[in-house]
Amino acid sequence: MLDILLTLLRPDTLLAMVGGTALGVVVGAIPGLGSILGLSVVLPFTFGMDALPSIVLLIGVYAGSVYGGSVSAILINMPGTPQSAATSLDGYPMAVGGQPGLAIGWATLASLVGGTFSAVVLMLIAAPVATFSLRFGPPEFFALTLMALTCVVAVSRGSVIKGLIAAVVGLFVAVVGSDPMTGDLRFDFGVLELSGGVNRVAVLIGLFALSEVFMQARSVDTPTAVDTSALAFRLPPWSAVAARLKTLLKSCLIGTGIGILPGTGATAASFISYVEAKRSGRFRANFGKGEPEGIIASEAANNAVTGGALVPSLALGIPGDAVTALIVSLLIVKGVQPGPFLFMRDPGFIHSLFAAFIIINILMALIGAALTGVFARILAVPTAILLGAITLFSMIGAYSLAGSGADVITCLVAGVVGFVLRLAGVPLAALAIGLVLGPLVEESLRQSLIMTDGSFVAIFLRPYSGAVLVLTVALLAAVTLGNRGERPQRTTDEVA
User: Fold this and answer.
1) Do residues 296 and 277 touch, judged by C-beta distance below 8 A?
2) Residue 362 backbone class (left: φ over 0; alpha: ψ -120 to 50; beta: rest)
3) CA 446 vs CA 68, 149, 452, 453, 459: distances in Å
4) Helix (H, G, I), strand (E, B), or coil: what is residue 177?
5) Which residues are bridge partners to 162 per DSSP?
6) Number of domains composing the chain
């Protein structure tokens, strides 16, 4: 423990933790930027650093940016990162209701608990959980994605048809490009830029950030609905936290579990956690009206993904998402080969990294609380200027993903489509779930059919996939019964 403490108190490691986390929070809070851009900016600075501070720097940017996205989601209804899209569903109404500081306090608390929870899981069960995840084949991944897609029903409560249409649109966009099995081009319409598929991050930036810009531009002369003139960070009282503790812990479990499974990501985790809280939460009737339980569900889950995604990355060398892919690549460049042998050959490095991750989550909360007033001054800029800056940052963020102008066009088109869908009352969350899970749904299903000689029944008879499908049916039944139970109350409310 003393060696770990001395290692973390080295000036370069300490500066990497504080600087990386602060930069991540700021980058995450600016709509259109996000984790990938933040990591891309700091990556060149790691080439002259030792292995531990360089990895700590990347993890600080990663964790800080995931949390930072909640700030703009709450204050201006424009998620700084796609991971915080679900946070705006209740965070922004709470801010409009006169409690922006308290909404940020809820997000900060949930982010701290979610990130720390995942760090503890990473420390305690990294190797066993990573070994167990090896048992999951394509049928199990297909069953998991199918369960996630059933959440569309809960997201679209009151408008199931629109939700299903949005989910199908998301699935369609996800399969544009080359066939993962045969390499044949699909739905590219002869456009070279579409042959590699549609950049999902660019779509999500346009879908949530730009579409909100277009919505607010309709009344650009009016001031923002959130009063940030006296914005002050406020933590919720313990009594309010205790009443929502069950949702907080459940969201931590959902985020960590999804983070361990490669390819799913924090965006899907936040939406799945949100709709689960909307289905079973104690205060589910207030969702969409500024209910803190909605903020908790989204922020605890997406921050818990950070630690979960590091489990397969460190224990197996298999990155869970694009961010951890950069981290794994940097480890290899530094001469550290991630995998099961890393825990035996260099336990000091692993334990120092675990301790640094916990400290980073604490720093994230402290920096977020300290910068609340700064964010308020930034957002006090006139709406027209702010919307223009957000549009610029969104375009820059889309371009920085791959250095391609096609991604900028994709982002702009997604923004227009999102604007039209908002006007039509179509839930963007359903489209986001379909888009994020689309590639995994297709690939796992087709691989499963190859394994079973084209038999769907064989997929359902496998123990793990069968258990997940049983849970899926139970979830669908619970949502259906819940909708039926709420119909008389909604009718009464409408008549009143």
Assistant:
1) yes
2) alpha
3) 37, 17, 10, 10, 11
4) strand
5) none
6) 1
Q: Using 50, 70 and 90 to split pLDDT, how confident is the model at 495?
A: very low
Q: What is the pLDDT of residues 80-111, one digit of tens each?
A: 777 787 888 888 888 887 788 888 888 899 98
User: 224 and 432 in contact (C-beta within 8 Å)?
Assistant: no
List pLDDT tens digits, range 358-401: 899 999 889 888 887 777 676 566 667 767 877 887 787 678 76
Query: In this structure, how many other beta carbons lie within 10 angstroms of the beta carbon of residue 12?
Result: 14
Lowest mean pLDDT among 149-163, 164-178, 241-255, 360-374: 149-163
How would you classify residue 24: left for phi > 0, otherwise alpha for psi between -120 and 50, otherwise beta?
alpha
Encode 456-465: b = buried (16+ Cβ within 10 Å), e = exposed: eeebeebebb
Please check whether residue 11 is in contact with residue 45, taking contact to mean a CB–CB distance below 8 angstroms.
no
Decide if 357 contacts 119 (C-beta within 8 A): yes
Name which of 323, 313, 408, 304 is nearest 36 in CA terms: 323
Residues 6+ apart with CB under 8 A from 395: 32, 408, 411, 412
Residue 229 makes CB contacts below 8 A (sequence gap 6+) with 376, 380
Report the distance separating Cα 356 and Cα 363, nearest Å: 10
Q: Which of 156, 191, 166 is nearest to 177 (CA)?
A: 191
Q: How far apart are CA 339 and CA 344, in angstroms?
A: 10
Longest Cα–Cα distance of the chain, Å, equals: 69
Could you tell me the two tokens for 389?
A: 């800056």
- Kindly state the tokens that stand for 482: 């819940």
How far is residue 291's CA from residue 311's CA, in Å, rounded to a whole number?
32
Q: Which two tokens stand for residue 238?
A: 């313990």
Structure tokens at 251: 């969201």
Token look-up 């569903």 returns 89
The dihedral through the CA atoms of 444, 445, 447, 453 has a sign that is positive
SS3 269: helix
Whole-number Å distance between alpha carbons of 368 and 376: 12
Alpha carbons 270 and 278: distance in angstroms, whole number: 12
**Residue 132 structural domain:** 2-495
| Alpha-carbon span 478 to 275, nearest angstrom | 12
DSSP 280-338: H-TTGGGTTSS-HHHHHHHHHHHHHHHHHHHHHHHHTS--SSHHHHHHHHHHHHTT---
Contact partners, residue 240, CB within 8 Å, separation at least 6: 292
| pTM for the full predicted model | 0.67
